[in-house]
Amino acid sequence: MLVLGIESSCDETAAAIVADGAEILSSVVASQIATHEKYGGIVPELASREHLRKIEPVVEMACQRAHVGIREVDGVAVTEGPGLIGSLLVGLVYGKALALALAKPLVGVNHLEGHIHSVLLENRMDRRAGKPVREARLPAVTLVVSGGHTSLFLVEEGRHPANSHPVFNYKRLGHTLDDAAGEALDKVARLLALGYPGGPVIDQLARSGDAQAVDFGRIKMKGNPLDFSFSGLKTAVLYQVRGTPLAVEAEERRAWRKTLESASTDALRAHCSQETLDLIASFQNAVVRDLLERTLAAADASQVDSVFISGGVACNSLLRARFGETSRVHGLRIFFPSPALSTDNAAMIAAAGYYKLRAGQLADTTLAAHASFPLGT
Ligand code: KG4
Ligand code: ZN
Question: Is 114 near ligand 1, meaning CB less than 6 Å away?
Answer without folding.
Answer: no
